[in-house]
Amino acid sequence: MAENATTAEATEPKSISFFDKYLTVWVLICIMAGIGIGYLMGDSIEMLSSWTLYQVNIPVTILIWLMIYPMMLQIDFSSLKEIGKAPRGVIWTVIINWAIKPFSMALFAWLFFDQLYSAWITPALADEYIAGAILLGAAPCTAMVFVWSYLSDGDPNYTLIQVSVNDLIILVAFIPIVGLLLGITDITIPYQTLVLSVAAFVVVPLIAGYITHNVLIRSKGREWYKNRFLPAFKPVSITALLVTLVLLFAYQGEQIVSQPLNIVLIAIPLVIQTYFIFALAWYGGRFINLPYRVCAPASMIGASNFFELAVAVAIALFGLNSGAALVTVVGVLIEVPIMLSLVRVARNRRYGS
Fold first, then answer.
1. 139, 141, 135, 142: which is closest to 72 by C-alpha?
2. If you ran DSSP here, which 8-state letter would residue 347 be given?
3. What is the DSSP string of 85-105?
4. Is the pTM above the cut of 0.85?
5. Which residue from 43, 59, 104, 231 has the least number of CB within 10 angstroms?
6. Per-residue pLDDT tens for 249-295?
7. SS3 24
8. Is residue 320 classed exposed, middle or buried when 0-12, 13-18 and 19+ CB atoms within 10 A define those classes?
9. b or e along 213-238 (b: 16 or more beta carbons within 10 Å of the residue's beta carbon)?
């Protein structure tokens, strides 16, 4: 594989599955279902929140594991040896996701939640919203970026390398960056909970995915693993996410019904951040002469988020009914339509031969 590989001609239109294409619709349905369940069950819904172990909700923990484990199954550590042959795309991805994106997200969040929205939300709620935005900004996309790369005709092998490197960096960079930025916002940081959350929701499923990957490929073969096993797990992750949203909004229902404006207020800086990072990654990639099939996925990774991790850590740090958790869920809600629009932007501005 070479970084300056020529762009292949598209032989057929790229398409997204019906379920993935309308993920925003399913999210909206789950939001309405959650609000309805919370309203109908009243105080009895709080019984679910009492099922905890070390302050972590057990039902949600199970669902989060079901979200993340299928994604870890896709990581192929053997692909990392290809980095040395074409380093610029990976280096640019790392710079965007770890040297720029978390800090620009924190800046937009502070500007909107703490300054521009001061007449509508309290300082305490602003701090929670900022924290949720920081968690989103510090968690670059993993699995869904393969969909965006495919739709924009990106190089699938190089995308795998970019995603794999980001997943490895999460293990060492997520905690210090989130800790630094949360400290800036004067929020008390439960470092032990943060470390345990990343270990539980990233390290352990990553190890489990690595072992599963190696064992099944050796016993069943790579084709079976790729074409039979992985597709069977794809619905598991999204279904777990949607069920988690039902629980989240069952707890958030009263607040949403009484303050629907807050959802709109949250969405505005998240949308601005997404388009800002995409533009920066796209034009920066072109400036350093990345080929389209490397630049497009790099821009998609920067624009999208590992919202499963962000939701997981927000729940672990601040609770199911927190403003931080709500921000990460709003991030899920807006991501699919925005990313589909960015796929169209990339394809309309395709360059090279």
1. 142
2. H
3. GSHHHHHHHHIIIIIIHHHHH
4. no
5. 43
6. 787 666 667 677 888 999 999 999 999 999 999 999 999 999 999 99
7. helix
8. buried
9. beebbeeeeeeebeeebeeeebeebb
Find all residues with CB under 8 Å of 19, minimum gap 6, and list them.
26, 235, 238
Residue type, 343: V
**E strand segments, the chain:** 52-53, 56-57
CA distance 352 to 240: 40
The secondary structure of 187-251 as a DSSP string is ----HHHHHHHHIIIIIHHHHHHHHHHHHHHHHH-HHHIIIIIHHHHHHHHHHHHHHHHHHHHHH
CA distance 206 to 170: 11
CA 296 to chain centre: 17
- Cβ atoms of 31 and 245 closer than 8 Å: yes
CATH no., domain 70-220+268-348: 1.20.1530.20
The structural domains of the chain, with segments of one domain joined by +, span 70-220+268-348
